[in-house]
């Protein structure tokens, strides 16, 4: 299954439910702070952030409950969603190609909760690009990060998945395309998207309005 299909499906559940609404985090206290629902929503990129992309599914954020834990953490006992507060997603399509980009954020009660969930969820999300995918470096963003690129579509279309922990949040970006040769689905493009999302999460946890853009 192509990445945007299952991610758009999750986002659609949010919309139908009526919802829409390596750097250290410096919060003054020296500790990363949990995000509110409003801060989680503002962390998600929107049309003004994504130069060259058009919104496919508008940003949506919900309070975590049993339904959303099952969607976000489809693992035994919904492992990885313990102490999660909010979940948000937005999806975009590249203006000049058939590429899609999806952002996901899970906001936790504490930095420890996000840290403990990291490996559990990467073991799930890291497989979304298929068995032939390879790892690549994102550079020094967040406290922990992983990325993979490989043929994720039915006909070998390229896809990427990244996961980053920034303080009390876990962040994902996924890109894929309906064409095999697509300049928008590359290590560099995935790195740029992950960096923007991580910086926006850092800004929100610092108490600032997220302003990072592509």
What do you see in this structure?
The chain is of the alpha+beta class and 214 residues long. It has helices at 3-16, 37-43, 66-72, 111-125, 187-205; strands at residues 53-63, 84-94, 99-108, 134-135, 144-151, 158-166, 169-177. It has a seven-stranded antiparallel beta sheet with strand order 1-2-3-7-6-5-4. A hairpin with an 8-residue loop joins strand 4 (134-135) and strand 5. Helix 2 (37-43) runs antiparallel to helix 5. The radius of gyration is 16 Å and the shape is globular.
Number of helices: 5
The profile of the biggest β sheet is: 7 strands, antiparallel
Strand elements, count: 7
Percent helix range? 25-40%
Helix-strand string:
HHEHEEHEEEEH
- End-to-end distance, in Å? 28 Å
Any low-confidence stretches, pLDDT <50, length ≥5? 1-9, 15-30
Strand order of the largest sheet: 1-2-3-7-6-5-4
Write the layout of secondary structure elements.
Layout: H1 3-16, H2 37-43, E1 53-63, H3 66-72, E2 84-94, E3 99-108, H4 111-125, E4 134-135, E5 144-151, E6 158-166, E7 169-177, H5 187-205
Antiparallel strand pairs: 1-2, 2-3, 3-7, 4-5, 5-6, 6-7
Helix pairs in contact: 2-5
Main features:
214 residues, alpha+beta, seven-stranded antiparallel sheet
Question: Can you summarize this structure?
Answer:
This protein is an alpha+beta fold.
């Amino acid at each position: 299954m192509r990445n945007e299909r299952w991610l758009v499906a999750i986002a659609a559940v949010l919309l139908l439910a009526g919802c829409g609404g390596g750097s250290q985090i410096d919060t003054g206290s020296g500790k990363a702070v949990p995000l509110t629902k409003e801060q989680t929503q503002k962390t998600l990129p929107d049309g003004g952030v994504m130069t060259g992309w058009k919104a496919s599914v508008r940003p949506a954020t919900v309070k975590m409950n049993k339904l959303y834990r099952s969607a976000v953490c489809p693992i035994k006992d919904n492992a990885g969603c313990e102490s999660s507060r909010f979940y948000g997603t937005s999806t975009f399509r590249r203006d000049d190609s058939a590429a899609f980009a999806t952002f996901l954020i899970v906001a936790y009660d504490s930095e420890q909760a996000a840290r403990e969930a990291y490996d559990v969820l990467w073991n799930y999300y890291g497989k979304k690009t298929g068995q032939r995918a390879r790892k690549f470096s994102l550079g020094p963003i967040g406290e922990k990060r992983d990325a993979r690129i490989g043929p994720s579509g039915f006909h070998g279309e390229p896809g990427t998945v990244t996961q980053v922990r920034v303080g009390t949040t876990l962040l994902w970006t996924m890109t894929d395309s309906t064409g095999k040769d697509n300049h928008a689905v590359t290590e560099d493009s995935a790195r740029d998207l992950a960096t923007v999302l991580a910086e926006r999460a850092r800004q929100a946890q610092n108490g600032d309005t997220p302003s990072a853009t592509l």
